[in-house]
Design a protein that fits this description.
By secondary structure, this protein is an alpha/beta fold. It has one domain: 3-Layer(aba) Sandwich (Rossmann fold). The chain contains two helices and six strands. It has a four-stranded parallel beta sheet with strand order 2-1-3-5, with helices on both faces. A two-stranded parallel ribbon has the order 4-6. It starts with 6 loop residues before the first strand and ends with a strand.
């Protein structure tokens, strides 16, 4: 990854959302990595050396406590954005545990 390219990790269980976000982000010039589950996201995060931006669905099946648990600390400048829609503000937290 060159210094000028931002690496984005998209985590969502819905293929249509992953595909849409990947197309938009790649068109905008971002290096985009997609994962369909928390376990896949952890593997890709580790294998690819982290990310600059984490877009993660907070409401996915098979996630412990609705969190993506990363095996290493996020870089200080990493941004985490949960794009999940929910009607209950108490059902969402940061969604990421270091």
């Amino acid at each position: 990854m060159s210094e000028s390219t931002c690496r984005v990790l998209v985590v969502d269980d819905e293929e249509s959302i992953r595909s849409f976000l990947q197309r938009v982000l790649e068109y905008a010039g971002y290096e985009t990595i997609v994962a369909s589950s928390a376990s896949e996201a952890i593997e890709l995060f580790t294998d690819r050396g982290g990310c600059d931006l984490l877009l993660t669905d907070l409401i996915m099946p098979h996630k412990a406590r609705n969190k993506v648990v990363l095996p290493a600390p996020l870089a200080p400048n990493t941004v985490v954005m949960p794009p999940s829609a929910t009607s209950s503000p108490t059902s969402c937290s940061t969604g990421v545990e270091p």
